[in-house]
Amino acid sequence: MALVFGALFAAYLFTNTSLQAAGNRGADIDPGLAHFAFDMGNIGLANAWVSLGTFAAFCGWAVLTTGIFRPWLGWLIVASGIGLALSRFVWTTNAWLLPYALFWIWVIAVCIRLLGRSA
């Protein structure tokens, strides 16, 4: 499941062109259309948080189930995933910063653990 939702998040990043469309041709584009494209890009990114959050939650579940890392790493990413998924509902605030920061803290901690094991 983590792979599926991770692939959905990556697919969104590759296919979303609303932000690029808002800046295309500069002064030639109608301002209303540029605002619409910009808003669609922001809403799409907020929707992508659900995919990223679900990916994170399933990664945490896998870590907790298999015991491959310490349990705090599993709970950290589960909390981040739930926070990212819930951030979709308050996307106009900066509430998404905390779970997003927790996600990257988890990524760095896992990288450190993996590099430490190979030595």
Question: How would you describe what is shown here?
Answer:
The chain is elongated and about 55 Å long. The chain has one domain. It is 80% helix and 0% strand. It is built from five helices and no strands. It is mainly alpha-helical and 119 residues long. Helix 1 runs antiparallel to helix 3, helix 3 runs antiparallel to helix 4 and helix 4 runs antiparallel to helix 5.
Q: For the report, how would you describe the main beta sheet?
A: none
First-residue to last-residue Cα separation = 31 Å
Order of helices and strands: HHHHH
Q: Any idea what the shape is? A: elongated
Task: Summarize model confidence as the mean pLDDT.
Answer: 83
Q: Radius of gyration in whole Å, from Cα?
A: 17 Å
Category from helices, strands and their pairing = mainly alpha
Count every beta strand, where a strand is a DSSP E run of 2 or more residues.
Answer: 0
Write the layout of secondary structure elements.
Elements: H1 2-15, H2 18-23, H3 31-66, H4 71-87, H5 97-118
